[in-house]
Amino acid sequence: MSGEIPTLILAAGASTRMKGAIKQLLPWGDTNLLEHAIAQARPISEEVYVVLGANADTIIESISKEVKTILNPNWKSGMGTTIATGVRAIMDTKSSPRGVLLMLADQPLMDTAYLQGLKNAFAQGDHKVAATHYGNSWGVPALFHSSLFPELAGLNEEFGARAIIKKYKYAGISILPMGKERDIDTVENYNQLSELHNINNEKL
Asked: How far is CA 138 from the centre of its chain?
């Protein structure tokens, strides 16, 4: 739909530090990491896309059929190609989105409330970028204005979205993640965050 902001979940990596486990399918609550990310994005985006690469055949069987999946055959080349593949697919649709929200499948503390806050920040002014504040830099989740689609679609293995965020920082806004930015790169990361998640749920 014209003017909407789809979400693009980047989930093409091979999880080489996860000791053979497929990170996207690791249990999280009553679902898995990727489905959890999808569930957080759905309330704020009518269209949710997932870019897959490594283990795509296995992962695609385990995620919602309502989600639009995109395959990046060059996923081994890096995150830049995954972003470019996803954005090109969105550009090929008949809709005219106002922007795109990029998020990862391995930041399970990033919830709907945070993503809505990012969307609200983007709407408050003529911003090119609304990004997550990481100390001296900004990163994903991040929302990009549609005027930046050609640059996103031209990314390659050498450059990810961070370079574009930095380029347009003068016309951007950032919000503090308040601890929600923690990602899962190793089994130890996963165990720590999973235990924290379970403890917090028990308190509810």
From this structure: 14
Residue 97 vs residues 4, 44, 143, 185, 186: alpha-carbon distances, Å: 5, 14, 12, 32, 35
Domains defined for the chain, CATH in brackets: 7-203 (3.90.550.10)
25/99 Cα distance (integer angstroms): 28
Q: Nearest CA to 99 among 70, 81, 120?
A: 120
- pLDDT tens-digit series, residues 137-187: 999 999 999 999 999 999 987 678 999 999 999 999 999 999 999 999 888
User: Which of 75, 103, 105 is CA-nearest to residue 6?
Assistant: 103
User: For residues 8 and 87, is the Cβ–Cβ distance under 8 A?
Assistant: yes
Distance from first CA to last CA of the chain, Å, rounded? 37
- How far is Cα 62 from Cα 66, in angstroms, rounded to an integer? 12
Q: CA 188 to CA 191: how far, in whole Å?
A: 5
pTM greater than 0.85 = yes
pLDDT grade for 204, boundaries at 50, 70 and 90: very low
CA distance 35 to 129: 26
